[in-house]
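Researcher: Last one for today. Full complex below.
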Amino acid sequence: MIRVQEEDFDIGAEVAAIRRGRTDIGAIVTFTGTVRDVAGGEPISAMTLEHYPGMTEVELARVEGNALARWPLQASLIIHRYGRLEPGDNIVLVVTASPHRQAAFEAAAFLMDYLKTSAPFWKKEETATGEARWVDARESDDTALKRWQRTKRAAE
Amino acid sequence: MTLKIRYFAWVREQTGRAEEDLVVPEEVASVGDLIAWLTTRGPEFEAAFARPEVVRAALDHVHVAPDAALAGAREVAFFPPVTGG
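Model: Here's the assembly. Have a good evening.
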């Protein structure tokens, strides 16, 4: 399931909703991305997340579909926030559930690696002095993606 | 051909607009052609596309490369590499 929203999310409530009424799940992994108070060695006071309504949902659903095709998941959830966020605020939640832990762990990492490099979100950080700057894409995010492409080739 | 063109993040700030509907000449066949044509519209577009290697494009909500054909597309978006998550 995909949700793109301005409001905060409750991790416990989301996990409870996934577990409700079922006892076949053996492993649940949650990943939460939060706003740090420092960027590039400089304190930041807030960040604003812009996104591309329409395309964001399409991309997140595509990434989720790829994970569901690759691992035996019983449930998956991606919630991504947009708008103005402050240090300590939640940005993104990924939940995966499977009968055994390895699929849930791997699928959660896969979802995060893919959404970071393909979902159309852009962060703008504000420093304490009121200066604002767009965050640059990180090469390490592309490197993180390559391991899934390698393992896929190896499996074929 | 009429296209809805959308701009995001610093591409939006540099062009000074979030979206517009444009009538594009027939000879503008690919995303790369469209970028070249847009840069002739003024200094704000020249600035936004000054480093084309850091501007990404999507056609009807799907990521595409600069050689992608515009034929049949309704919406084109230009934006920097994504930084969500």
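The interface with chain A takes residues 6, 8-10, 58, 61-63, 77, 79-85 of chain B (CB under 8 Å). The first strand of chain B starts at residue 2 and ends at 7.
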